[in-house]
Design brief:
mainly alpha; two-stranded antiparallel sheet; 7 helices; 2 strands; disordered N terminus
Length: 288
């Protein structure tokens, strides 16, 4: 199983001929015997440990832990938040600076997209690349959030932030309680739904650009509300996939450097949820 999120091509923790990817992931309760992608590593858990029976192997000191994931995720999200705040303050969206700020935001979004795609196809995580993505993503989010708060729905940004945090906490709790079980069927359903969602959003954008107005109407009115809710639900599903990726990486003894992949994936997913939450709340507040 390959882990995923809105980029659709982010790599997981298991290995297949040297390439990172989700391959033969364990089911809930621990890795299955014979499927550990790090079994060829002399320091990976061998038979006789908690994953099997047999000889003991020396303890590794460079394996990924939950603390590593939390630290790297904090650094990545912290970069997003810092640059978002700075862009909000330094790139005002008043009438005199609106065009300039929007231009910088669009440029930052494109750079962030390119950096995220480069990292998604790299065999190993590059911390500088991931943090650069976070910085440019923060610039985009800061300007867009400022514009929405100024011209569309004052106060909605804090609501979107709190909503994103609530979704994260809710999915984490449900995952830890095993109310959500990430299986191949779950993965396939989420991927199919996500690709359909993105296809419709791209079609709506193209119709909006070339036909004017709101395109197919997927981002306003009743349809906008429905698609906003669907987008948030998909984001929650991506979070469950990310949590599964982290859980398997720790259980398999993934290298510590791959905690950056977890941070990268979680950041992508949280940005997705925040944008969908911001859009949904803006529509709701605009309909009041």
């Amino acid at each position: 199983m390959r882990s995923s999120n809105p980029v659709f091509s982010r790599r997981g923790f298991s290995r297949d001929n040297g390439h990172a990817g989700f391959n033969a992931a364990p089911q809930a309760g621990g890795p299955a015997v014979g499927t550990n992608p790090y079994a060829t590593n002399p320091y990976a858990p061998q038979q006789g440990t908690q994953y099997g029976a047999g000889s003991q192997a020396p303890a590794r000191t460079d394996v990924m832990t939950i603390d590593d994931v939390v630290t790297r995720t904090g650094m990545t999200l912290g970069t997003v938040v810092l640059t978002a705040v700075l862009s909000w303050v330094l790139l005002p969206v008043d009438e005199a600076n609106l065009g300039k700020s929007y231009g910088i935001a669009i440029g930052a979004a494109l750079v962030a997209l390119v950096l995220s795609l480069i990292q998604s196809f790299k065999r190993k995580p590059t911390p500088a690349l991931i943090l650069a993505y976070a910085a440019f993503e923060g610039v985009f989010l800061g300007v867009i959030s400022s514009a929405v708060s100024t011209y569309i729905a004052p106060g909605v940004v804090m609501q979107a932030v709190l909503g994103t945090m609530a979704v994260f906490a809710g999915v984490l709790f449900a995952y830890k309680m095993r109310w959500i079980r990430v299986t191949r069927r779950f993965y396939g359903f989420v991927m199919a739904a996500a690709m359909g969602f993105v296809f419709l959003m791209v079609a709506n954008m193209l119709f909006s650009v070339f036909g004017g107005g709101d395109g197919l109407g997927f981002r306003s009115g009743a349809l906008g509300i429905i698609f906003g809710i669907v987008g948030i639900i998909l984001g929650a599903c991506f979070l469950a996939l990310d949590f599964k990726q982290v859980e398997d990486g720790v259980a398999y003894g993934a290298p510590r450097e791959e905690s950056w992949l977890a941070a990268f994936g979680l950041t992508l997913t949280l940005v997705w949820i925040y944008l969908e939450m911001l859009r949904l709340l803006s529509i709701l507040q605009g309909n009041d």
